[in-house]
Design a protein that fits this description.
single chain; 151 residues; 0% strand; 4 helices; mainly alpha
Length: 151
C-alpha cells in the first residue's frame, strides 16, 4: 500500500504554541568571559604601560631641569663677573669719591690691639670691662647713682 503522492506533500506544519522558550545558558558565561578577559588586558596594560608612562614623564622633567640648571649656571657666571667688576679697586675708589668719602689718614687706621692699648693707657682696662665715662662720673655696679643715693 502505497500512499498517494498528495498525502505526502501536504502535511501540516507543527504548532509552536506548546513550546516554552528556555533561557540561553551560554550567553552569560560568554559575557563573563569577555569581561574577565577585558579586565585582565586592562590590568596587564596598566602594569606595563603605567611605569613606562611615568618613566617618560620623569625623563621630560629631567630634560627641563637640566635646561634650568644650565640657565642658572650661566646666570651665576654672569653675576660673579659683575660682582668682581663692582669689587674692583678703581670702581670702589670712584664710588667712594662720589659719596664724599676720603682715604683714612695715618692716625685713623689702627688695629684693635693698638686701639685698646691707647684707650687703656695703663688704666687697667680689661677685655669685657666698660670703657671710662667721658664726663668723669663713676657708676657703681650696686645700682646707686653718682651721688651715692639709690634710685
Amino acid at each position: 500500500m502505497m500512499r498517494p503522492l498528495q498525502s505526502v506533500l501536504v502535511q501540516r506544519q507543527p504548532s509552536n504554541r506548546f513550546l516554552v522558550r528556555l533561557p540561553d545558558r551560554r550567553m552569560p558565561r560568554a559575557l563573563l568571559t569577555v569581561l574577565v578577559m577585558g579586565a585582565a588586558m586592562v590590568l596587564v596594560l596598566s602594569l606595563i604601560g603605567w611605569p613606562r608612562l611615568k618613566s617618560t614623564s620623569i625623563h621630560y622633567d629631567l630634560i627641563r631641569l637640566r635646561d634650568d640648571v644650565s640657565l642658572l649656571t650661566k646666570q651665576e657666571h654672569s653675576l660673579s663677573i659683575e660682582l668682581e667688576l663692582e669689587r674692583a679697586p678703581t670702581r670702589l675708589e670712584a664710588r667712594a669719591a662720589r659719596l664724599g668719602l676720603v682715604p683714612p689718614g695715618p692716625l685713623r687706621a689702627m688695629s684693635m690691639s693698638q686701639a685698646l692699648a691707647s684707650a687703656g693707657a695703663g688704666a687697667g682696662l680689661e677685655i669685657g670691662s666698660a670703657p671710662p665715662d667721658p664726663q668723669g662720673s663713676a657708676v657703681s655696679d650696686t645700682g646707686s647713682g653718682p651721688d651715692g643715693a639709690h634710685p
